[in-house]
Design brief:
The complex is a heterodimer of chains A (167) and B (753). Chain A is α+β, with helices and mostly antiparallel strands. In chain A, 35% of the residues lie in helices and 16% in strands. In chain A, α3 packs across α6. Classes of the chains: A alpha+beta (167), B alpha+beta (753).
Chain lengths: 167, 753
């Protein structure tokens, strides 16, 4: 296990975070989540459990959805990271954000950033998922408020719209 | 009634910030120089703290101070209904996780080291974990007054006569599971002392004004010296009604001239906060051969764990709702809340009603099964209607939509039944399908207690409207609904109203976000406040138009005399003139629905002004070989009085079905064993079916635009509908939750698989 051998020695890592180059020196046993939240003040990724079970800390690493609480700093070296802050803002929402708003796919909102990023990773890989595939794609993201249905509706609409644009 | 804003699917307030990650929850707040707090918790379930030596821990670099019970300036005793819980143990600890000492440190690492360096000696006492054992005379005594916290009795008619007149009598026992709320946001907050000395706490909570009162008592200062500001709250489900980090933050901020912060890990959140009361229920039901209910007799034991929390409310609600939404002339219920050394149980979505519904709805299906009736017909034969008398002797005057929910569910019951018959392919071995129905009723607001709310609507000389409410939106959407109500009254859009919410420094008490009460009670208070503000403007408009104010229309952001819309004057202009003449307009609204306390011997009284009703049907697939039960489809019909925001109501219904699937099929919290989401599984998107939400609107005359509530009702029928479907599939009843893999595998004998 590479991680197990990593201690708190200082490592230098460089990442592209939301398109911005970031170089920082940090103890090697810190997680990507704590670097994002504490050092870069990107608090959109949440800590819900710290053991990779709830998905609230989901970010995109080289386009794939990962639990940032499970990624140790050296693993992120050289990676492209997208957090919810890099997806869109209120002036220009990403289509997924827009669809979540439209379908009321948000209640407390704590799981929302991770949920949207998992949805993005899913659609990037499978632009035309069935509802079951959508459910599979977000099954690593726990939500206690919504019952998921409006979330599935929102993701389905974006997929359909993408299909429409391409055909 | 024609409405422009109420009843519309308007965007949830703050949703843009939520989807862009800008929303700040307590753990996201930046507070430079804040100290970290950690709690030392009891490793034993029952004991006496004999010694606390903090010297070694205090010597650790970065440790600022360690607090124990002797540091608490006011009363070291709190609790939302009965005060029996210590902030830091003064002598006894009563469950694994009871707080003993509080560490304030410069950083996480120092706090962690201090936790390990504390020298604490506890003399262990015998512990008791089963409420029936705890009631025995020789059981370890957990609290001085004994282990029986509370008994609620309800007596109406004569149950013996009722059973004599019955053709069929069923007596069964049921057991429900201990559950964790599992909101995704762990408890978190920050606190600091303001220059003038006031302690300010920003915290995730469902109950800011109650927090303020309790914290003031703990600190021994006036409530005006404590300010609680609710931060954006990542779900609550009742679990954030009791205080969590609040007393620790307040205590540290009281002594230290530094801001402090505290966030529970998931493990601490699981260990230290309330659970759903597990209930043991014995229920005896008598009916005629036509299926008419004659008598219900029940004994209920609720395990409230180490502390009372909302135990009294849970025992009471379980008793009050024990018959289900049906006319029963003869009722005798006894419901007890009992202390044990388990994790303490408190409020969780439904306060005992989801548990008792498992019993009354299983009884209904057992009766139907024995009498050859279909599940909807037997419910329809007994369902409340206007004029029905409840077990507490209350006559239902209006808004009794239970029959309509049954009517709306029947086509889905038939459709799902047809789907089973039409399933072409032979199912895999051991797999069977079944349809199950369950209904529920739920009283809105506190049970037999006053539960007032208040709100203000202010309008300044620029026409700016501000709504002030103490109601905590914890994700369910009360901000949006309350704004819709105010906007509807004032004839403007919600975006034209500034909302100030849940800050004890700025808003007045709206009561807790619990008991599905905010839309109904705070909604009505907002309605009253907006109406009063509007009246002041109408008076001014009447002067301007020289017409009686009863003929002035306030709509679409304008005032005009009836039939003379061409004369319309903008809202802001009328406001400006009114404020110039009379000063800032401030409409005060209050509402306290009529209740009366329940008689201690008979339980007779008016527990609530109004009730929500619902019926749900589920199509399930039972694999008796693997034990897996999947809910394939569900439809759920809810009488909400009026859906102020249908999207929000539907969101609650989807949510309730999901949570009910967890409760029905796999969630179970084991004290001192369940630590996190790796062992406490909650439903994922794959565990939840496509749900058809059906909104029934039987208006409640005292509600704002007829509205009641739906937050808890959404959950209640789910688990019993699943159990009834499992019976239809397998011919076997499950009387104990959850119906997990092991239960289902053991349910069907091998020769039938």
């Amino acid at each position: 296990m590479e991680e197990a051998e990593l201690g708190n020695e200082i490592v230098e890592i460089s990442m592209q975070v939301n398109g911005v180059s970031v170089v920082l020196r940090t103890p090697a046993n810190r997680t990507l989540l704590s670097i994002l939240r504490e050092d870069l003040r990107l608090t959109g990724a949440k800590e819900g459990c710290g053991i990779g079970e709830c998905g609230a800390c989901t970010v995109l690493m080289n386009g794939k959805a990962v639990n940032a609480c499970m990624v140790l700093a050296p693993k992120a070296d050289g990676a492209r990271i997208t957090t919810i802050e890099g997806l869109g803002d209120e002036a220009r929402l990403h289509p997924l954000q827009e669809a979540f708003v439209k379908h009321g796919a948000v209640q407390c909102g704590f799981c929302t950033p991770g949920m949207i990023l998992s949805a993005k990773a899913l659609l990037d890989e499978n632009p035309n998922p069935t509802r079951l595939e959508i459910r599979e794609g977000i099954s690593g993201n726990l939500c206690r408020c919504t019952g998921y249905q409006q979330i599935v509706d929102a993701i389905e609409e974006v997929a359909a719209r993408k299909q429409g644009e391409e055909s | 009634m024609i409405t422009n804003v109420v009843g519309k699917r308007i965007q949830r307030i703050g949703i843009q910030q939520k989807v862009t990650g800008k929303t700040k929850f307590a753990a996201d707040l930046d507070i430079p120089g804040a100290l970290t707090l950690r709690v030392y918790r009891s490793p034993v379930a029952h004991g006496i703290v004999r010694k606390i030596d903090t010297k070694k821990a205090e010597a650790i670099e970065g440790v600022v101070r360690i607090f124990t019970a002797k540091d608490i300036p006011g009363k070291n005793l709190y609790g939302i209904i009965n005060r029996d819980q210590t902030v830091l143990a003064d002598s006894k600890v009563r469950f694994i996780g009871d707080p003993i000492a509080l560490i304030a440190a410069e950083n996480e690492k120092s706090a962690e080291q201090a936790l390990k360096a504390l020298e604490i000696e506890i003399e262990e006492l015998p512990a008791v974990f089963d409420p029936l054992e705890a009631l025995k005379p020789d059981a370890p005594r957990i609290h001085e007054k004994g282990n029986l916290l509370f008994t609620r009795k309800i007596k109406r008619g004569d149950v013996e006569k009722g059973f004599s007149a019955s053709d069929i009598i069923l007596e069964e026992t049921y057991e429900t599971n201990m559950l964790e709320h599992a909101y995704i946001e762990p408890e978190s907050g920050i606190a600091y002392r303001e220059k003038e000395g006031r302690i300010t706490i920003l915290v995730t909570t469902q109950n800011p004004h109650a927090d303020q009162a309790q914290l003031a008592a703990i600190l021994g200062i006036g409530p005006e010296n404590v300010r609680v500001i609710q931060t954006e709250t990542g779900g609550g489900f009742g679990g954030k009604l009791d205080m969590s980090v609040q007393p620790f933050l307040a205590l540290a901020a009281y002594y230290l001239d530094r801001p402090v912060r505290m966030t529970y890990s998931r493990e601490e959140s699981f260990q230290a906060t309330a659970k759903r009361h597990p209930l043991k229920i014995r229920m005896k039901t008598g009916a005629t051969r036509e299926g008419k209910l004659m008598a219900v007799n029940a004994e209920i034991i609720a395990d409230t764990g180490a502390y009372g929390s909302y135990g009294i409310a849970v025992a009471t609600r379980a008793a009050v709702h024990a018959t289900g939404p049906y006319e029963v002339p003869n009722v005798a219920i006894e419901s007890k809340a009992v202390y044990t050394n388990n994790n303490w149980s408190g409020a969780m979505r439904g306060f005992g009603v989801p548990q008792i519904a498992v019993a009354h709805e299983s009884q209904m299906d057992k009766l139907a099964d024995s009498l050859g009736l279909d599940p909807i017909s037997i419910r329809m034969a007994n369902a409340f209607k206007v004029g029905s008398v409840t077990p507490t002797g209350q006559t239902l005057r209006a808004s009794v939509g239970i029959r309509e929910t049954l009517k709306k569910i029947r086509p889905y019951y038939e459709k799902f039944s047809r789907e089973i018959q039409e399933t072409q392919h032979p199912l895999p071995q051991g797999v069977k399908l079944g349809v199950g129905v369950a209904s529920m009723w739920y009283g809105i607001g506190n049970t037999g207690h006053p539960n007032p709310s208040s709100a203000q609507v202010e309008i300044d000389e620029t026409g700016k409207i501000t709504l002030l409410t103490g109601a905590a939106d914890i994700g369910q959407g009360s901000d949006t609904v309350l704004l819709q109500i105010a906007a509807e009254v004032l004839g403007v859009g919600t975006e034209e109203i500034l909302l100030v919410r849940a800050d004890t420094g700025l808003t007045t008490d709206a009561g807790a976000t619990s008991a599905s009460r905010q839309t109904y009670i705070s909604g009505r208070a907002v309605y009253e406040a907006a109406t009063k503000a509007k009246e002041a403007l109408l008076k001014k408009a009447a002067e301007i138009f020289n017409a009686p104010s009863s003929l002035i229309v306030c709509d679409g952001g304008y005032f005009y005399p009836q039939y003379r819309e061409y004369q319309k004057i903008p809202f802001g202009e009328v406001a400006k003139r009114a404020v110039q003449a009379d000063g800032v307009i401030r409409g005060e609204g209050t509402f306290n629905p009529e209740t009366s306390s329940l008689d201690p011997e008979t339980g007779q009284g008016i527990p609530y002004t109004t009730y929500a009703f619902a019926t749900q049907v589920s199509l399930v697939r039972v694999d008796s070989v693997t034990g897996q039960v999947s809910v394939i489809r569900a439809a759920s019909a809810h009488d909400v009085g009026k859906a102020v925001n249908p999207s929000n109501v539907e969101g609650q219904i989807f949510s309730g079905v999901a949570m009910g699937i967890g409760m029905g099929l796999f969630e179970q919290f084991f004290p001192n064993k369940t630590k996190s989401f790796d062992t406490y599984l909650i439903p994922t998107a794959l565990d939840v079916p496509e749900v058809t939400p059906i909104i029934v609107e039987d208006p409640e005359p005292t509600g704002p635009f007829g509205a009641k509530g739906v937050g808890e009702p959404a959950l209640i029928p789910t688990a019993p509908a699943i159990l009834n479907a499992i019976h239809q599939a397998t011919g076997r009843w499950v009387n104990r939750l959850p119906a997990d893999l092991e239960t289902i595998r053991g349910l069907v004998p091998p020769e039938e698989k």
